[in-house]
Design goal:
Length: 416
């Protein structure tokens, strides 16, 4: 490995900050490797419980009382049934939590999602399990549950055989209005990716970067309940008409790869501004798949979204060799729930070893970085640097962010 380049950010033990201040840190009982699931519950007795999905076994999910964000307290931490399973993704509506389960290899169980009654956060009770296992399925990687009625998810299925093993998860809609009996009501996959499709298979990326033509985030908002905004990894950003949930229909698609290196992760619509914020995901260490960016798209014509800018990334020379991954990942997604902060002027995302960063997009052609927080390397981190994985901003403008390996939960104030 080349020697570390000098300059701000190049030393992984340094903590860097601008307009964000650390107010608390919790290592989560020594199980601080966290995934992409963060949700905030407001309980009947007015407590605030932050629910967190773990990146990998042995833990399933953890509930943290953040009523006083300066004194977080773990109230429950649960176990996975075996070591070849991850939960990774969760969402909360009222007193119901949906938790995704993905197995390390195809054909294992349990694979799908669970619904839990969390009316007593210290004692989550299983309501039901939706089975998404199968001979070619790893289950559910990510889910979206914000209206109490439907779970939208990136999932395999028992009856779905991909043409290429990397293309094993597609968009599925599950009706959970009767939470004891969840039932699939619709699905969509990129034509050409399933065995038996008449469409030709998509052209694959360079094998060094091929991550698959499959769904990741599957976001649906009450402002447009007839639209699903899907990050389809190497298939780009996809807009679907789901007015008829049994028959989703492609409306628009934007693809930046090739020439870029794939992995579209999140498509966040800013409805009043006719913009889409689209994040890539970095999946390689030491800048190998750079650049992984956050894009601003003009979506006035949703059948033809056009990029107008990217959020200015942290300096490549300082961060690429800082340790672990460097590049875009998750965004705060303006969840349509009472405990979530929403903004169409400020975009906040996680960038692995470049921390959590905030951007002013009031001029979408010239986004400006306005805040960041980069923790020093957690002790015992295999990456040798922070790897911030996800972010949630609550209605008090408190920023919660988590490390992918060991660092646990960081709680920040924005001082913008």
């Amino acid at each position: 490995m080349p020697p570390m380049l000098p300059g701000p950010g190049s030393r992984a033990d340094q903590t860097l900050s601008l307009n964000m201040r650390l107010i608390a840190h919790h290592e989560l009982q020594g199980f601080g490797g966290m995934g992409e699931g963060m949700a905030l519950q407001l309980t009947r007795d007015r407590r605030r419980i932050l629910w967190l999905a773990h990146e990998s076994a042995p833990k399933n999910f953890t509930g943290v009382d953040v009523t006083d964000p300066r004194q977080p307290r773990v109230v429950v931490q649960t176990e996975l049934p075996h070591a070849k399973l991850r939960s990774n993704s969760l969402d909360v509506v009222g007193e119901v939590m949906a938790v995704a389960y993905q197995t390390q290899t195809i054909g294992l169980t349990p694979a799908g999602f669970d619904l839990f009654d969390i009316s007593v956060p210290e004692q989550p009770k299983l309501i039901s399990h939706f089975d998404a296992s199968g001979p070619h399925s790893r289950g559910v990687h990510a889910l979206w549950f914000v209206d109490g009625e439907f779970v939208h998810m990136a999932s395999g299925a028992a009856d779905f055989q991909p043409r290429h093993p990397f293309d094993d998860q597609f968009y599925r809609i599950v009706d959970v209005r009767n939470p004891s009996r969840p039932v699939e009501i619709g699905r969509w996959w990129l034509p050409g990716t399933r065995e038996g499709d008449t469409a030709p298979p998509p052209q694959r990326l360079d094998p060094k970067f091929d991550a698959g033509f499959r769904a990741h985030n599957t976001n649906v908002f009450p402002q447009r309940p007839d639209r699903a905004y899907v990050g389809y990894i190497d298939g780009g950003a996809v807009i679907l008409d789901i007015a008829d949930k049994a028959h989703p229909r492609l409306v628009g698609r934007w693809q930046n790869s090739p020439p870029f290196n794939g992995f579209t992760h999140t498509v966040l619509p800013l409805f009043d501004r006719n913009l889409l914020i689209v994040s890539d995901e970095c999946i390689k260490d030491n800048g190998f798949d750079w650049p992984k960016l956050v894009w601003v798209l003009d979506a006035r014509v949703e059948s033809n979204p056009i990029p107008v800018s990217t959020l200015p990334p942290a300096p490549h020379a300082a961060f690429a060799r800082r340790g672990g991954r460097f590049g875009a990942h998750n965004l705060h997604e303006n969840l349509p729930v009472p405990t979530s902060w929403t903004s169409d002027q400020i975009v906040i995302g996680t960038f692995f070893n470049a921390g959590v960063r905030a951007y002013d997009i009031s001029d979408p052609f010239q986004p400006r970085e306005v805040a960041y927080f980069v923790p020093g390397a957690p002790a015992r981190s295999p990456a040798g640097a922070i790897q911030l994985n996800d972010v949630y901003v609550d209605d008090r403008r408190i920023v919660y962010t988590v490390d992918r390996f060991v660092g646990g939960l960081y709680i920040l104030e924005m001082t913008l």
